[in-house]
Design brief:
Main location: other
CATH class: Mainly Beta
Subcellular location: Cell projection
Number of strands: 8
Domain PDZ: 27-93
CATH superfamily: PDZ domain
Number of domains: 1
Distance between the termini: 17 Å
Largest sheet: 6 strands, antiparallel
CATH architecture: Roll
Strand content: 35-45%
Organism: Sinocyclocheilus grahami
Keywords: Cell projection, Repeat
Helix content: under 10%
Order of helices and strands: EEEEHEEHEE
CATH topology: Pdz3 Domain
Length: 111
Amino acid sequence: MRSSQLFVPKQQRRLARASFPPERPRRCLIHKSHEGLGFSIRGGSEHGVGIYVSLVEPGSSAEREGLRVGDQIMKVNNMVFDRVTHGEAVKVMCDLYVSVCVSERVFLAVF
């Protein structure tokens, strides 16, 4: 393949979601402190998407367990999160300890 075949004009550059399979799900056991679980979520079935981590508080149990912004929450305390609303997800995560199974969201920059 010639190097000229790899060139994409500047006006056609964009950010595209990769079609790679998500990485192997991982588990995080998160202890709820007086400040909460240490992370925030976005999404829900009412928006046509899954539940995703939108914020991880520095120094929190969630950060120490390896939770990352962009992770999709697949399961919490053995409840599958494939079709839950945002409100249902919040209610499930009110326990003192939360076992979270997440899968990393993958993006690919196309230049």
